[in-house]
Amino acid sequence: MISGLPTSGKTTRAKQLEKFLSERVANTPTSPSNPQPKYRLHYISDTTLSIPRSVYDLSTKPEHARSANASEKDARAKISGAVKRVLSDRDMVILDNPNYIKGWRYQLHCESKAVRTPSCVLQIGCGVDRAKAINEERLRKKEEEETGEIDEIGDEEPYSMPNWENLVFRYEEPNPMTRWDSPLFTLIWEDEEDRTQKVFGDLWEAIAGENRKVVKPNQ
Ligand code: ADP
Ligand code: MG
Prior knowledge:
Elements: E1 2-4, H1 10-26, E2 29-31, E3 34-37, E4 40-45, H2 70-86, E5 91-96, H3 102-114, E6 121-125, H4 128-146, H5 161-170, E7 184-188, H6 193-208
């Protein structure tokens, strides 16, 4: 589970992690006599599932609808369905999503336990001001695109500003003292190649290393 503020660099790190893990997977045979890779790697994000940013938007909904935010609930059902379809003790999933609610991370942790495979969280640390500036820049580009000033924006949609502010407000920091948020790995914006590779290596050890935690469903 990737976790972090909106427009904080999650997808950038998730793609770096995907590259790192795919190389490790390719170099990890099932056994000395079976050269087939032991693991398969899957990348799932709101973008791959065509979930728009607006599902997180509470600002456009009336007050009474807020407690039962149907669109976000539907999105979560879609995401957990997509994860469950592939996750196994041989199938790794990188879930590139804000993953900002602790109860949701708990749920995903339980899903992984149910198929006897470990989970972990990679938190992306980025100052609120920087993350906000990125969203504002994306909004500006989108506007230019709509007015025909530029041809196309990247594949990443901006959040409406009230939606963005609200997601920051609702963000529930991972807590490494809890089972569902551990092991917890962290990368900040400034972390360069060396540190990034070290963190990814530690993450690999936790989920696929010799000493990976054996998971029992009733623990
Ligand atoms: P998110 O997935 O959280 O919305 P993105 O990964 O799409 O964020 O990043 C937003 C922008 O910030 C992108 O244009 C990306 O190139 C840039 N960016 C993200 N992380 C870093 C970083 N660590 N160093 C430099 N630029 C970054
Ligand atoms: Mg992203």
